Amino acid sequence: EEPIPDIFDRTLGIPAPLVTALAASNIQTTTARLNGQISDDAGEACQYRFRYKKSGGSYSYTAWTGSKTTGQTFYEDIDSLVIGSLYYFNAQAKNSVVEGVWGNELSFTTKPPAPTNVSATDGDYTDEVVITWIRSSGATQYQVYRDGVGLGWLGDVNAYDDNGADPPTITPGSASASDGAYVAYVKLILSGQSVNNGTTHTYKVRAKNDAGESGDSETDTGYRGHGELAYQWQRSSGDAPSGYSNIDGANTAIYYDTSAPADGGGRYYRCIEYAEGA
């Protein structure tokens, strides 16, 4: 004797309705819409329901409802879900005589929470700002925002090196050279110069998974630092502002140029300033 197919009620020997679970939609942090379709109504309009559970948990059931026939779709909105968590669900239908079997099982993950403990370095590096955070449950990607502008989606990471942050700058100051005041040298003085940290930027991070993006994390500020200000005085080759070359050992803000022409010939001076990162 041929076995009775699963679509038949084994006790009564009559056909039972069949359903197919469809992909969940409208997935948010704590809510989602479960979708299904009547595959076979077994001859009359059916009611339907869903069951769903968090991974590792037990099932919750929606109430029997509706009146659907073969090919028609149905849905149920559920809430009180756990943020950033994996859920499984399937559907079942019944007619006036018998309940069908539970259909195929699908899964979805709720939107992740925003990353926490976002921190940006304050001058620790001359070539970048390093942003770190604590990963969000259920997230697969992250994006860092600098001053509100996204820097591109990353993988499942918890740090980002922002070498596009504004670099440190140098305020050059002004240079002066003595005009015949000393017989043995020309006194060179640089004043008002400084080196400044890079622009202070504001950073935040978002998480993302297949359901969508999280909200914004808390913000933190960070900036690129700089090295010590260094100097190199240069002297022109003649009495014109051209043909400059380095003066050996002239590496201080105040310098006495003892190698200036002894005949009193005029020369132009300038100072090149530099610092790591600037």
From TrEMBL:
Full protein name: Fibronectin type-III domain-containing protein
Domain Fibronectin type-III, residue spans: 14-113
SUPFAM superfamilies from the UniProt entry: Fibronectin type III (SSF49265)
Entry-linked PROSITE patterns: FN3
